[in-house]
Specification:
The protein is of the alpha/beta class. The chain folds into four domains: about 150 residues, no CATH class; about 180 residues, Pectate Lyase C-like; about 120 residues, 3-Layer(aba) Sandwich (Rossmann fold), CATH 3.40.50; about 160 residues, Response regulator (Rossmann fold), CATH 3.40.50.2300. Helix content is about 40%, strand content about 10%. Helix 11 runs parallel beside helix 12 and helix 14 packs parallel to helix 15. The two termini are about 65 Å apart.
Length: about 700
């Protein structure tokens, strides 16, 4: 229920908006009545300041108002047709562009019933009356839509604004000078319209012609138009600073002279768009598709366009100073007299007819770029000061396929999982792919230092398990902006963040791993413990050893608890402890000594399971306590499973070899241009449950484990 105060505020806001509208319309009438042009222009300047509009926006709205008023006056006045309209064409003029509207109107009416009631003459009269009044009704709808847009100019969220824009689009009417700062217009569809006209038949061999919507000189600063459909729209001269056009369709759009400073155009479609003279300083163009687009004399200072496509684009005399175009496809682009000072074009595709004739290249970074020939860059000014890969001329001349270097960040302490990753990576490599292992200190700081080292070495790709989903981001963003292909394993970042940082994630279903571990644990208990119980109500005594201090390990715990709850057995958790390093074996020993009735230990990570096994073995409790958990396959663990006297009853292997292999294959495909690098994908790798009952399968896997 709306409070009285809130209702009062809304009422006051509506009355205020209405008064503003009346005052705006009154100013239009006053200016329209002025005869002297100089006086008119002075009044326009004063009014634009009074109503807090740009002079251009005020003039556009004044023109719309006067045009709409003139059209309504002409249509409401019954007069003879203009002498310029031929009597032969008069019937066509009445029917032109209206038949389809009339047919739509009659779809819900039974013509048979109508003819029966009114007769044929009455039906004909109704048809003629409908057609004659169509222009009036159309203009009324246009005028109403424009009034709604004026009234909603100061509101961020207003569904009526979208409805009004769609109505104008359907009527082939534009709204130059639209004022809607910070407006929420996500998923807006402005498709343009097809106007019916007999003249088009003679000019274009068709009754219909497509007309884009005119939104030129609009003020849409900070507006959200993500995923909007604006193909072909006219936004010339518009103020679009800070606008969100993420994944918007802007193909063929007119953005000449528009201000797009700080705009988000990531993954937008700018194919054949015209941005001549536009300002895109600090804009985000990550993954944009802008082939054949016109960026002549455009300012792209400090813009970021990683993994973008500018094939055949025109950058004539544009400024890309300090811009980041790493990993962009720029083949056949025109860089005539472009300013590329201190710009970064690492690993870019500059093949085809791409030329830098007269371009300012001082300090530009072309490390790892793909060239058509060695003379492309030498036509630019100060090219000797650019950064180029060693022996780049020889590689270009001989047409050598670039050797790729892919690195794995791994902990300094030995880990069977990371050994498996590295083995899988080497299996995916070939003679032109080198696999590097980087031992890194645990924690975000150590990870960041290792990433800096990889950037300095000019690595092509990095495969890693992020230490922290938030804390790791600054270093990962730095690596991405340096042109490194980033693939995460075992722990995926939030998708919204990952899309602008990584190209892929390979992970197992952690919760299902914990669940599958719990399902087998339950079956084992029913077979080995339940038959020895004196009462069905007697609980199973379990202790949980988890690694949930890390976000990536928490789903394991969720999975095991879900399986236990579903088992139908009575469980009693005697203890729960978290572990972070090998010294935590003492923690597990303490709970085993404090609770001698513990029958089951469950380990919620590689480390937790190893620590649990060690504690049981140290205390000599192999016959009293069984261990289950998440643990990767190695020769040592395989031998434990083959020993029926060992406390380790089952492990959940994360298929590290397969993960490393698939991640490397993905990196190679992206680096060779076989797969788009701006498209982020998540892949689930199937895990393996291995138990003491799987003797033959474990023996077969010993060869693989022996390589780790």
């Amino acid at each position: 229920m709306t409070s009285p105060s809130k209702s009062s505020d809304q009422s006051e806001h509506f009355e205020s908006s209405s008064r503003n509208m009346e005052q705006l319309f009154q100013s239009f009438e006053i200016i329209a009545a002025l005869a002297e042009e100089e006086v008119r222009q002075q009044k326009i300047r004063e009014a634009s300041v009074a109503f807090k509009l740009s002079e251009t926006s005020y003039q556009k709205q004044l023109q719309n108002y006067l045009r709409s008023k003139a059209d309504l006056t002409a249509e409401e006045t019954v007069s003879a047709p203009p002498a310029s309209v031929s009597p032969l064409l008069k019937p066509v003029s009445l029917l032109d562009a209206k038949v389809s509207d009339f047919v739509d109107s009659l779809k819900e009416v039974s013509l048979v019933k109508l003819a029966t009631v009114l007769g044929e003459s009455a039906l004909l009269f109704a048809m003629v009356s409908y057609i004659v009044t169509i222009p009036i009704r159309q203009q009324q709808r246009v005028q109403k839509a424009r009034e709604i847009l004026l009234q909603s100019s100061d509101r961020e969220y207003d569904d009526s604004r979208i409805t009004a824009l769609n109505a104008l689009d359907a009527q082939c009417a534009g709204n130059p000078g639209l004022v809607a700062p910070n407006a929420h217009l996500a998923n807006l569809e402005i498709l343009g319209c097809h106007r019916w006209s007999l003249r088009n038949l003679f000019n274009q061999d068709s009754f219909r012609s497509w007309e884009p919507m005119d939104l030129s000189y609009s003020v849409l600063t900070g507006a959200n138009l993500s995923n909007a459909q604006l193909s072909g729209a006219n936004l010339e001269g518009s103020d679009l600073r800070g606008i969100n056009l993420n994944k918007a369709n802007l193909s063929g759009v007119n953005l000449r002279g528009a201000n797009l400073t700080d705009a988000d155009l990531s993954r937008a479609n700018l194919v054949n768009a015209d941005l001549e003279g536009a300002v895109l300083d600090n804009a985000n163009l990550y993954g944009v598709t802008a082939s054949q687009a016109n960026f002549a004399k455009t300012s792209l200072v400090n813009a970021k366009a990683l993994w973008s496509h500018f094939e055949g684009a025109n950058f004539y005399r544009a400024s890309l100073k300090k811009a980041n175009f790493n990993r962009a496809s720029l083949n056949n682009a025109d860089f005539y007299k472009v300013n590329l000072e201190d710009a970064s074009l690492r690993f870019t595709d500059l093949q085809g007819r791409t030329r830098f004739l007269g371009a300012q290249l001082g300090g530009a970074d072309f490390w790892g770029a793909q060239w058509e020939n060695i003379f492309q860059i030498k036509r630019g000014q100060d090219w000797q000061s650019t950064i180029l890969a060693p022996k780049w001329e020889k590689k270009v001349t001989l047409g050598m396929l670039a050797a790729l270097r892919i690195g794995l960040i791994k902990p300094r302490e030995k880990s069977s999982l990371f050994k498996a990753y590295e083995l899988g990576m080497r299996r995916a490599a070939n003679r032109r792919v080198d696999i590097w292992g980087f031992d890194s200190q645990e924690g975000v700081a150590g990870e960041a230092a290792t990433i800096d080292q990889m950037i300095e070495l000019g690595m092509d790709a990095v495969i890693l398990r992020p230490n922290d989903p938030v804390g790791s981001l600054p270093a990962l963003k730095k690596a991405s902006e340096a042109g490194l292909v980033i693939i995460t394993v075992d722990s995926c970042l939030e998708r919204e963040v990952a899309e602008d940082v990584a190209i892929a994630c390979f992970d197992t279903d952690s919760e299902k791993m914990g669940y599958d571990s719990g399902i087998y644990l339950t079956k084992w208990v029913q077979k080995n413990i339940v038959p020895r119980q004196t009462s069905k109500a007697e609980p199973i005594h379990i202790a949980l050893v988890d690694g949930a201090v890390y976000d990536r390990n928490y789903p394991y715990l969720q999975g095991i608890l879900a399986a236990i709850d579903k088992s139908g057995l009575s469980w009693k958790t005697l203890a729960s402890v978290g572990v972070t390093d090998h010294y935590d074996t003492d923690k597990v020993i303490e709970i085993l000594e404090a609770y001698p009735d513990i029958q089951i230990l469950w380990g919620g990570s590689n480390l937790a399971t190893r620590v649990a096994v060690e504690a049981v073995e140290i205390l000599g409790l192999e016959e009293e306590v069984a261990v289950f958990g998440i643990l990767d396959l190695s020769r040592e663990q395989a031998e434990r499973l083959l020993d029926s006297s060992n406390p380790l009853q089952s492990i959940i292997d994360q298929s590290g070899v397969q993960t490393g292999k698939q991640a490397t294959e993905r990196a190679i495909a992206v680096l060779r241009g076989e797969i788009a690098g701006e498209v982020y994908e998540e892949h689930i790798v199937e895990h393996r449950l291995l138990t003491q009952d799987d003797t033959e399968q474990v023996r077969q896997l010993l060869n693989e484990a022996g390589s780790l």
